[in-house]
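Running this now, will post back.
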Amino acid sequence: MTESVFPQLAADGPQDSPSSDSSCECERRKLLIVTGAIGAAAAAATAVPFVSSLAPSERARSAGAPVEVDISALAPGRLMVVEWRGKPVWIQRRTPAMLGTLKGQERQLADPDSEVPQQPAYAQNAHRSIRPDVFVAVGICTHLGCSPVEVSAGAGNPSVPGDWQGGYFCPCHGSTFDLAGRVYRNKPAPTNLEVPPHRFLGDTKLVIGEDSTA
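Update: finished.
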């Protein structure tokens, strides 16, 4: 005799068999599991963008977020470049000989005392820096935005004077700057190189983009 797959009906009306109750309970559990999984996935999908929004974005960094720089490996006389606000920022460790070239050529400079506000007040000095040995400047010519290059003393570069003591030369239109970023007279660049806000976290770490007055 073949067993019917349908529940038997009593004379007084339909009644659920034990096997039917078990099947319904099983289906109910499956539905709860599936619903819970979908809810968890939706929660996770919502949480990821929220957590991501808490982290600083690249746009925020390029808009001016400070940049921390380790200069422990920067040897005397060497120059390194970092990016801040989408601009190249030079950090050069000047030697005593390099600092010595900053004196005695004031008459050749357009703004030797840095009277034009191209630097914070703490960098308005002969070396245009917080510490004499560490020079920080935006490596963009103040004429039309080209990027100057460093030209060492005695390099034999025909683009700079024969008595050149070291500094920076803009290959676009010939502006020259000394090792403190001060522009020479009668050059296309109207002002000295910009010195960005910065501060020291210690002997070997710098923060570009903020200072102690922020």
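The longest helix spans residues 18-54. More later if anyone needs it.
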